[in-house]
Structure formats: structure tokens, C-alpha cells
Amino acid sequence: MSNYPLLENIHSPKDIQAFDEEKTKQLCAEIREKMIETVSKNGGHLASNLGAVELSVVLHQVFNSPEDEIIFDVGHQCYTHKLLTGRFAQFDTLRQKGGISGFTNPEESEHDIFYSGHSSTSISAACGLARAKKLKGEKGYVIAVIGDGSLTGGEAYEGLNNAYDDADNLIIVINDNKMSISSNTGSLASSLAKIRSTKTYYRSRERFQKVLGHIPLVGIPLRNKIVKYKYALKGALYHSSFFEDLGYAYLGPVNGHNLARLKNIFEVAKLRGKPCVVHIETLKGKGYEPAELDPEHFHGVGPFDIATGQSPASSESYSKAFSKAICGFAAKDKRICAVTAAMPTGTGLEVFAEDYAERYFDVGIAEQHAVTFCSGLAKNGMIPIFAVYSTFLQRAYDQLIHDISLQKLKVIFAIDRAGFVGSDGQTHQGLFDIPMMNNIPDIAIFAPASFEELSSMMYRAVYQEELSSAIRYPRGGEFTLPENFTPDGKDYSVFEAPQETKTLIVTFGRTFSAAYEAQQELAREGIAVSILKLNKIKPVHPEAVAFASGFERIYFYEESLKTGGIGEHFEYLLSLHRFKGTFALTAVDASFVKPAQVSEQLHAYGLDAESMIRDIKGE
Q: What is the pLDDT of residues 267-310, one digit of tens each?
């Protein structure tokens, strides 16, 4: 007998719209079991998805996707949505090569409206979708589901500010699983929330206001006074007048795991004649005790044992190496500050946050603010180090130019998850930071190939570089390195073949390991190849270019985009030396890399040792 008798027979949201409450509870239980089973094998975002099960189910019962368009902010709470929109049979392939994405993906389903992997964008997109429906005379609602964490991002407020008064087809759902947006303590506040969240209350209120409006002379002034008093009372009890001052109807807060209350409040939201904010309170990790007790760990987790919740012991990683390095500098230098945009665990700043709390700043999901905040710290004599994933630094391009480079300030960017990132897929690849920063003046870029080299390059960035620097390093641990490999502190390093050769591999960062493996294998086959390893990739040292120009065949391998990358610039520098040999550049063409293991991605794009050997042998 199947463990999922309901779930396996759901092919579209319409299949659940007639479910009664008991059947819906059973469905929610099956969804949680399937999520835990799959994520325990594949890894993924678990706690946020467990907390949003009832919310997602009820949204699909009350609304008619895809005519009603549902957008999940960040998208990492979309697993229930995927299971209800025809992807149960493929769910075991979640985040795997050739499988379904861990985020919403329009290529998979008409129910996925946008690619979604970065936060705070849903309200802006929803405003546009809702307005387009109005302009075209199309029916249907637009629902943006945004977490309280995403409300720390400035674009969310830009979107809130942009809603139109007549956007009665726009509903914004705040999934509040941590931050208290409204002060809703006390029995009176609780009772009022229940009363206000019923269709009977809403309809009675509308009839009452219409009656007042028809009373000669005193009706309209009296109605206006009542409305004004009501808003003042609600503001005192809920602190929700913020949304209503922006022109939204505000509903909630409502228990996000009470199916009847959820269904009722969304039915009420549909009756409102204006844009509406629905405030839902949920428990992150709901239904799986280890995730409830430690939602931060289970927010994004690798494979784990379901019975215990324990993951395999984590090995050393670049994030941990960065943690050790920054704490070492901070212990000796009180100017060192650490900044994160709501990613202390992912970037390895937990220890720093504990040991140097007065110099640790988590600014929320606000990368633009983080960069400009760092500029202020730097201007007044501190040395800020902003630890950020490559994919999220993209959100602060203007600030890099205007608030860092133009001001000629010294800020250190510790760019984690640079290059391929594996199963997070298209929305999280770290391939854009080099082309983004390559043409910004006065920002040096370093690319370590080992943990020790990361620490060495951080020292250079902090104490030897006059202006700003970026140190970009990959997700995970070290790959193969030469025996007794140690940083030499130079802008480039040469690993010469044991015999004379006219063939040179040029590379940097993680792909140096593949180049070294290829060099060793080719040597065993009697083919000599030298390696030029770039340590400081921006600017490229002129002597490195001069050295390379003496070879006849150059193979450049870059774990970044081809256009605007280091390899393309290196070829230009070679032309200035009147290089007459052949130059082959292997990098990622303009594309978005789909989920797979990092090793699979490196192979697919020709950046592993096997591919390098094949290139050089001309196979």
C-alpha cells in the first residue's frame, strides 16, 4: 500500500479543492512525510517548507492557479506547491541533475510564474502582474507569498509603496515564522483578530457603512469618524496601520496551521475591494521535531538521518577557513568588522558573532545597504569585511561602483560560493561576480586554491592592498593539490613541466587542482605541460602575461563566464605582446547552469582534468 494515497493522485490543484478538513489534514501529513523523506536524501530547504504546508495547500484550495498567479518570495518554500501541481512523480529528483529545481521554475510548470531564488522581489513582480491583468481585462488574483525575513529587503517596501488603489486583484501574504510584525498579545487583540477575519464581519461592516452613507447631513461625517477611530484602535492593538496607511486592507494575524481559519481569511481577502495584506503566523520546521528545535540548521540542509536529524560530520570548507582567518585578524586588530546580509551560518561568521559581537553586523537581507554600510565603516577608519555569496553580491552592483570604488575606500569582500554551486541551480550560481567586478576601478580580486592560500590572500587584502579587494572562493573543500603546496604570496605562480614544453595551461582558483591533475597524467603519457596559476586575477600582473607569451599553445580554463571574464582579458593582454600562438579559452558561455553535483557541472563545462587532457591531446 502506498504511503501517499492522496498525494500520488494529485495532478493539479483542482484535485484538492473539494477536500474536507479531515482529508486536507491527511494531505498535509503526507506532504510533510514526502518532504522529509526526499530532503533527507537530496538535501534542500526543509524548515521553511514544513512551516508553509497548510498555507500552500489552502492557497491552492481557495484560488485557481494558474489563472490566479501565486509567487513565492525566494522560492525556497515552494515544495508543497510543486507537489500539488503535478510534480509528485518527479519529486525524488529534487535538486538533482536532470531533476526538478528546489525553487520555482517556469520551465517545469505553468503554475510557476517566475524563477525565484533571491528574496524581496515578489511584491514588485506581483504589482506588475496585477496591473497587467487589469490593463488586459483578465480575471484572476495575484498572490505574493513573502516571509518576514524577506521583508528586511528594501525592494519589498518599494513594491508595497507602488501598489495601485484599484489593485483589488492583489493579495500579499506575509508568512511570519520568526519576526513579530504585529503586537498581538492579550485576549482582546486575539478576539478582535478572529472577528475581523470572518466573512460575516466584513459583509456586516460594508452594509453598515452603506447605510451611514445614505443618512442626510450626518451620515458621511459619522462614517468617517468611525473609520478614523477604528484605524487608531487597530494601530494601537496590532501596529498594522503601516499597511493600511499605504492603502492596503490588513487581515490577521492568523494561525498558519489552522486550516479553517486560513481558508476563511483568504475568502475574506477575495472580497476586499482594494489591495490586501494577509498576515499568517507559522512555525518553521512544523511537524518534524529536529527542524522545529533547530530551524536555522534545517533551513538549508544536506542529507541527514530522519530518525535522529543528524547530518554526517561536515568536513573542512572554505567557509570555515574564512571563519578562522577573520577571527585571527580580529583578535589582533580592533578595526576588523564583519558584515553579513542575513547569512551568518552560511558564510561562517557564527564564531565571529559570538567572540566579537560589538564588531559584528547582520543587516538583514539587504545587500545594497550592507555594501554602503561598509563604506561608512571604512570612511571612519574601520576595516569592514563583507561576507556574501557570489550570487547575492549581484544585488549591490551600483553600490560597488558608487559607494566603494568612486569613494576610493578600503572594504574587503569575502565572496563565498564563487563558481559552480551544485544543486541550488540557476538562481544561485556564482559565475557573475568576475564579469561584474572586472571593469570596476580600484577593486582587486584574489582567487585562492587552498585554505591556507585563502588566509594568505586575506592578509594581503587587509594589510597590503591600498584600496578594496575581493577574495572569491568556492563552496565546499579543497581539491587535489601538489605535495607540500604552500602560498608564495605572489600575484602568480608557475608550475613548470619537468622538460621543455611549448604548451601552457593558465587558470586560477579551484580549477588549478584539475590543471595539476591533468599535468601529472599527461606527464605519465610523455606529454609535457606547464601551468601558470593566477593568484591575483585583477589586475593581472604584466610579468604573468610576458611569461605566457613565450609559449606556442595556451589553454585558459576559467570557472566563470567567458564574456567579460579573466580569460578574455588575458587574451587581449597577450595581443599587446604580439602573441602569435594559439589561445583556447574554456569557460561558461552566457547561460544559466542547471542543478547537478559540482563535479558534474565542472565536467559538463570542460573544466575538469579529464576535459583538459582531452583538449591538449586534441581528442
A: 999 998 889 999 999 999 999 999 999 988 888 888 999 999 99
Instruction: Return the CATH number of the domain spanning residue range 7-181+249-293.
Output: 3.40.50.970
Angle at 610 between CA 607 and CA 616, to 5 degrees: 85
Element (H, E) at 338: strand 336-340
Helix/strand/coil for 553: strand
Q: Answer whether 0.85 is exceeded by the pTM.
A: yes
Superfamily of domain 318-472: Thiamin diphosphate (ThDP)-binding fold, Pyr/PP domains (3.40.50.970)
Q: Give the residue numbers annotated as catalytic, written as ranges.
A: 284, 367, 395
Find the mean pLDDT for residues 75-92.
94
Q: Is the pLDDT of residue 229 over 70?
A: no
Asked whether this chain's domains 7-181+249-293 and 318-472 adopt the same fold, the reply is yes
Give mean pLDDT, residues 598-613.
Answer: 97
CA dihedral in degrees (445, 474, 510, 328; nearest 10)?
Answer: 70
Give 442 or 195, the one with higher predicted confidence. Answer: 442
So what's the architecture of 492-617 in CATH?
A: 3-Layer(aba) Sandwich (3.40)
At position 300, the amino acid (one-letter code) is G
Ordered by start, the domain boundaries in the chain are 7-181+249-293, 183-239, 318-472, 492-617
- pLDDT greater than 80 at residue 530: yes
The pLDDT value given to residue 429: 93
What are the distances in angstroms from CA 491 to CA 334, 496, 542? 28, 16, 10
Cα–Cα dist 116/615, whole Å: 37
C-alpha cell at 32: 510533510
- The x, y and z cell numbers of residue 616, run together, are 591538449
Q: Which helix (H) or strand (E) holds 608?
A: none
| Whether the Cβ atoms of residue 556 and residue 508 lie closer than 8 Å to each other | no
The CA distances from residue 496 to 310, 446, 531, 567, in Å, are: 45, 22, 6, 20
Exposed e or buried b per residue across 255-270, where buried means at least 16 C-beta atoms within 10 angstroms of its C-beta:
bbbebebbbbbbebbe
Per DSSP, the three-state class of 510 is: coil
